[in-house]
Design a protein that fits this description.
heterodimer, A: 203 residues, mainly alpha, elongated, B: 585 residues, FAD/NAD(P)-binding domain, Cholesterol Oxidase, domain 2, seven-stranded mixed beta sheet, six-stranded antiparallel beta sheet, 12 helices, 18 strands, 22% helix, globular
Amino acid sequence: MSSDDPIDLRQDRREWLKTSAAALGASLLSGPAVTGEQPQAAPATKPAASSGQSKPTGPFFTPAQHTLVEELSETIIPADGHSGGAKAAKVADYIDQFLRETYDDNQKALWREGLRLVDLMSRHYRQKSFVDSGPEERIAVLQVLSDNDHMTDLPEVRFFIELKRLTARGYYTSKIGIHDELNYKGNRILEEYVGCDDQGSTS
Amino acid sequence: MTEPETDLTKTYDAVIIGSGAAGGMAAHVLTSHGLQVLLLEAGKKLPIEQELRSMEWPYDNAHRGSLPPESHSLTFNEYTIRKPPYGAGLENAQHLRSYVGNSDYLKNIVVDERENPYTGTNYAWVRARCLGGKTNIWGRLALRLSDYDFKAKSRDGFGEDWPISYSDIEPYYDKVDLYLGIMGVKENLPHLPDSIFQRPQKLNCAEVTLKQSLQKMGRVLTQYRAGVTSEGLKHNKYRSRCYGRGACERKGGCDIHAAFDSPTGLIYPAMDSANLSLRTNAVVREVTIDPQTGKASGVRFIDSQTMKDYTVRAKIVVLAASTLESARLLLLSKSRLHPNGLANSSGHVGHNFCEHIMGPGVTGRAKDLVGKPATLDDGRPGGFYLARFRNLSEKHPKFIRGYGFEGGSGCRMFPSGADVHGFGASFKEEVRKNQGAYISMGAFGEVLARYENFVDLDPVVKDKWGIPALRFHYNFGDNGHRMAEDMKETAQEMFEAAGFEMVHVRNRVLTEGWSIHELGTARMGNDPKTSVLNQFQQSHDVKNLFVVDGSAFVNASCQNPTWTIMALCWRSCDFLADEFRKGNL
């Protein structure tokens, strides 16, 4: 399929869901597959990002899932000439901590299923895993979900919405997002608010 | 400030229930008149500066400032689809908070909904049980009411007039302004009287564009009238002046107390008089009655930590527990002499419940500001207030009463456009370039005080302390919904007239309760048959019982109530102290 063709997500997903069994068997990923399986109770190799609370569990994502989330979030908010992107802002760590701590099992399940489905989509459209795809190919996959973001009955669409929400949340609350990207001026003592020169006074 | 041990063996001159705006003001006024006062607060005394941490960067916070994800704060959809007490499907969440509670800085300030259930019709009830109550986190918009509100019935025939006029309360608004500090600009509007303002903040350029456009329509946009001291208060050592530190709109409060809160503004100074004792974790369950005289003799409370029951005696009981909690307490205080609940011979306790309807509003973009370098716009306590313009000189064909808008514009710490469609490099650039160009506003309108809107006690459900829960029978009514339609239309018209590109028109009406301006459940009036309190918030039935919070309001007006609650309370407590001295109570 050419990337210029309009894509019918509903029509198409029947196809790639059919191929999913084969794709799972032929996973291109080394290490733990990006699947719906529960991750191994891996020993916590990195501490929870600046968390004051010590949680007993290890990371939510497997190493492969973590890499995938890094690349997905970077596709949502990429590095550009202006500032670093989601990867540099460690958005994947933020999302991992959020999912590790959330009470919401549906949210956890959505992320596991969403990561699996997005990777399958990539294999279907691009014949490559998402991580092995180039920037343009990655954009093409997420573009399908973004263009169809009203189809919230589909888990991959709900996943995309959550991916974007948490990526924006993590990025714009990071040092890179606040200072480098937005050049935020506040949160410091300000003797006099500048405002507008003309206050529109009637008198 | 010293905190004297509370002595439960002595009889206090007055016991005050609740430490928010009303309870703090009652403590201030009564102790300044020399009364020996005990103040009871149901919640904890929190290390509030450590809770609020107003200048903490999100990336230095374990949850980027949000509620820790092991807990849940209720959403609009949950309030809409589900029914109180709203726990279904959320059993796994460690704590359940109201919609306001989605912040790491508020998680210990607002109550756990599971410990404090309520039933009945949908209602987003926001409660803060801690010293100072909701004043720790309030929106700070400090407006006066006028005779357009106090005498609204005389103007349009609906409801009741207040038993006071603006001239009765004006000197007390002045006292509140001077004692607590308020920023703003004089506008000489008869329907939105000016305060005695400290140095105002400025408007930014998009706000000035809107202001000038509105002038042509005869409508007035003014600087946010914030209950914040910009010049400092020489008489108060617990509060700093505002340093415009920014991020004021972050959910949370002001940890240098430039914004008014009841503990630093009222309670700590009152404790310095040595006339005030404070007991926190005191959940009052009943006002006790002397069976000989029929008068209030004190209160019964449970220590929330030890679950032990206590009784304390006082010559005067002052309820200031909030509109809904004070009504609940009156209904709980049933006795042989007061079978329908205390102070309820009229049957009006819990009724005439009213508030503000909100939700409709607009977000626009000032095109000339797109792509401009970032500016510091959140270093001020608020943006603007657009004063009521409906049903002043002309009569609207579809509804009575009015509404005003709160709004603001400019850069903020978390960008306004982070939810725009799309992703990738273009999304990132769009968020950056537009960040200072957004302007938005939302309306607050008067919900009519109707007898059929009421709360009573649930016959089955009880809170964590075994106290019967409140049950709601409440809706906005047709007038409210017709007004909301008009809010949406006028908001759009005004933004279009100002030349803003329309980004978002919000049509939906938010859940009942969302404004956190609940009022009117023990209204004042001259006729004991149709009102609970007289013009000094004194019970018609029980002379030594006063209810000094928002429950005394006769209507909701469309202005934010906190400043009026405090002015009214000051006036009533002056009267109370005078009557007490004369031996009339």
